[in-house]
Design brief:
This protein is mainly α. The protein has a single domain, classed as Ferritin, core subunit, four-helix bundle (Ferritin). Helix content is 71%, strand content 0%. It contains 4 helices and no strands. Helix 1 runs antiparallel to helix 2 and helix 2 packs antiparallel against helix 4. It is globular. The N and C termini lie far apart (50 Å).
């Protein structure tokens, strides 16, 4: 594995850790119910992505994907055009969801780029899977944003 790919994997791992922390901390701030459940699920998925990336980095291997994991997702683009405020400890749920949606979009782009330069089929498959997973997360965040904030307007 090249040094550039290793650095990209380490960056990706840090992004997964940051995403996990964002979702887990936000889940503590919302009322119990579907929104909290979704945020906790996203946090768990980010933890799983981190494990996959760490396995690839340490052993050059990852678990095989199922057909369900390869499902294609449509980008709703809701958060693409919203202005993200810097997150602070007292950030609103609306601001957190905007940042989360944009971060998921950036992660999707990163994994898509890594898939294009991957040295073998298995590694490319992992990055394509992760890109698709990040797009799923973006879609979930944007649907929640739409439900909570567009419905009010």
């Amino acid at each position: 594995m090249s040094n550039a790919v290793e650095q990209a994997l380490q960056t990706a791992i840090l992004r997964e850790i940051a995403a996990y922390e964002l979702y887990a901390s936000t889940a503590k701030r919302v009322e119990p119910g579907p929104s909290q459940d979704m945020l906790l699920d996203l946090a768990a998925q980010e933890r799983g992505h981190r494990r996959r990336l760490e396995n690839l980095l340490s052993r050059g291997a990852f678990a095989r994907l199922t057909d369900a994991q390869e499902e294609q997702v449509i980008d709703l683009k809701i958060t693409d055009y919203l202005v993200a405020a810097p997150l602070s400890p007292d950030a609103s749920l609306q601001d957190i969801l905007i940042v989360a949606g944009q971060r998921e979009g950036n992660s999707h782009a990163l994994y898509g780029a890594l898939a294009q330069v991957a040295g073998d089929e298995q590694t490319r498959g992992l990055f394509e899977f992760l890109a698709n997973e990040e797009l799923k997360h973006k879609q979930l965040v944007e649907k929640l944003y739409d439900e909570l904030f567009y419905a009010e307007n």
